[in-house]
Specification:
TIM Barrel, two-stranded parallel sheet, 293 residues, 2 domains
Length: 293
């Protein structure tokens, strides 16, 4: 039987009118309907998503470099993360000193990237780590012309205010999955705790980069819920988890992830890509707003 033509998918035409023309986000049931489309609808879906991104975000792509000031040994039990110290992960704890961070920031700027993100495998930063972050930010700003982002786990209001005051441009903090599926992959903290940090970051005026993982065993409905209720901001698209880290629960034999239809590139003709304007690198922006050097 011949595959349906892309323009025959009613939900995509509805999405085009609602999102592209009216600027109204999709509801949960609409997202689930799109997720349930056959593979033959994938090219048309990707094309529409590309057009939406171009309209609302422009044709700029921002390149960000990431470095870990503290790797491994995290006390949280995120089942998908190799940084967790709860499981038998091959990752071992490592700390970087300030000169190494400055050197990495310079190397990042040299690649043409406009953002440098400092991350730490922690539940949330303690006083010692916050002091290190402050010193690192000051040193980097003295020597490197680049935006600084952070990903330091869950924050208090005081810590959010401190980071904003130090000139942190963006905070990276994922919601990981849908609220209803969250307890299946994390038990040492709650979805609400993560959501609270996202809300405080936005209220403080920092950009928020927030996303999730798919393929951990959640249903299509939960994928739709996660996208519909995820905190808005500088949204990062969902990333599939094709091969869970060794030693973590999701990587153990017998675990069955990817309930529902897994994300796939089947249905895309060889060499196919959404059509649109060429992408450009986004220029550096000063977190203090216009008028600053």
């Amino acid at each position: 039987m011949q595959a349906a033509r892309p323009d025959s998918y009613t939900i995509l035409e509805t999405a085009r009118t609602q999102v592209l023309e009216q600027g109204i986000g999709l509801a949960e049931d609409q997202l689930v309907e799109i997720l349930s489309l056959p593979d033959s609808a994938l090219p048309a879906t990707l094309q529409l998503a590309h057009e939406v991104r171009l309209k609302h975000c422009g044709d700029d792509v921002e390149v960000e470099g990431i470095i870990s000031i503290k790797t491994g040994g995290c006390p949280e039990d995120c089942h998908f993360c190799s940084q967790s110290g709860v499981f038998d992960s091959p990752v071992r704890g490592v700390w970087l000193d300030i000169p190494e961070l400055v050197k990495a920031a310079k190397e990042t700027e040299a690649t043409g990237a406009t953002e440098f993100c400092i991350v730490a495998a922690v539940r949330g930063p303690d006083i010692k780590l916050m002091n290190q972050i402050k010193f690192a930010i000051d040193r980097i700003k003295e020597e490197v012309d680049i935006n600084i982002a952070c990903s330091l786990g869950m924050l208090t209001q005081r810590q959010v205010d401190q980071l904003a005051g130090w000139g942190v441009h963006r905070y990276n903090h994922n919601l990981e999955t849908a609220r209803s599926f969250f307890p299946q992959v994390v038990t040492t903290h709650s979805y609400e705790e993560r959501l609270e940090t996202c809300a405080m970051v936005k209220d403080a005026g920092m950009e928020l980069c927030c996303g999730a993982l798919i393929g951990m065993g959640e249903s299509l409905e939960q994928r739709g819920t996660g996208r519909a209720t995820g905190g808005p901001g500088t949204a990062r698209g969902p990333a599939e988890l094709p091969q869970p880290p060794a030693g973590n629960p999701l990587g153990k034999p017998g675990h069955h992830g990817r309930q529902g239809r897994p994300s796939s590139h089947r249905g895309l003709p060889p060499g196919h890509a959404p059509h649109g304007a060429p992408l450009r690198r986004r220029p550096r922006t000063d977190p203090r707003g216009p008028g600053h050097p």
